[in-house]
Structure to design on (224 residues):
């Protein structure tokens, strides 16, 4: 019997991957589907490898797992961003991108009302340092789900394509990290890049859709 069997009590079907607590939990979460969750299946974002092959996925949300890896904030963060789930504004140019997923605590429970604060470069690789273009924060819903509508960020010298994000469970410590795109040539040369932070990305007509699930320290605050 595998460790997953011991945790879930679900027998492993012949030739099939055993069901983890996380997978069962996600199946229950999507009983009332999160509109933004790409694909609509019962598997979490990290139940699938990124679309460019055998790079290691972000760690599973199982008991005893490490939280999502932190990364440097960088020089372009600005506090007091507007609360909004869409960073698109009139005149925003670039390939539309939707990022959806869940925030979990390290005990594999979804975290309701977790803060997510996103910021990124525009399609030309520039950050808005005077206003709040392509900056915004939001909170997870009662099931720990979130959705971000934005554009694919452009490239600038020294970095691969990425999104910045801060994530915090109510009463928990603040996680600052970055999300990455599979298949980017600069993933191999960016010294900050971490394959554990690759999103699952697919083409959806002229746009792109991505999924990612965060695992954070829930602290002592309320949990979903």
């Amino acid at each position: 019997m595998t460790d997953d069997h011991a945790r879930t009590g679900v027998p492993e079907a012949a030739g099939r991957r055993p069901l983890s607590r996380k997978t069962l939990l996600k199946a229950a979460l999507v009983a009332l589907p999160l509109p933004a969750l790409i694909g609509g299946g019962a598997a979490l974002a990290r139940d699938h490898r990124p679309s460019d092959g055998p790079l290691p996925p972000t760690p599973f949300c199982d008991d005893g797992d490490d939280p999502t890896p932190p990364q440097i904030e960088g020089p372009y963060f600005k506090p007091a961003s507007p609360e909004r789930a869409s960073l698109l504004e009139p005149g925003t140019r670039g390939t539309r991108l939707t990022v959806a997923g869940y925030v979990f605590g390290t005990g594999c429970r979804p975290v309701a009302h977790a803060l997510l604060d996103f910021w990124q470069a525009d399609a030309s690789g520039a950050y808005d340092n005077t206003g709040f273009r392509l900056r915004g924060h939001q909170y997870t819903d009662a099931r720990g789900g979130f959705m971000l509508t934005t554009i694919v960020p452009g490239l600038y010298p020294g970095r691969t394509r990425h999104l910045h994000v801060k994530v915090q469970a109510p009463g928990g410590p603040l996680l600052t990290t970055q999300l990455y795109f599979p298949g980017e040539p600069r993933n191999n040369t960016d010294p900050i890049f971490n394959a554990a932070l690759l999103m699952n990305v697919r083409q959806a007509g002229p746009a792109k859709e991505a999924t990612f699930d965060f695992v954070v320290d829930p602290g002592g605050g309320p949990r979903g």
Notes: The first strand starts at residue 96 and ends at 105. The helical segments are 3-8, 21-29.
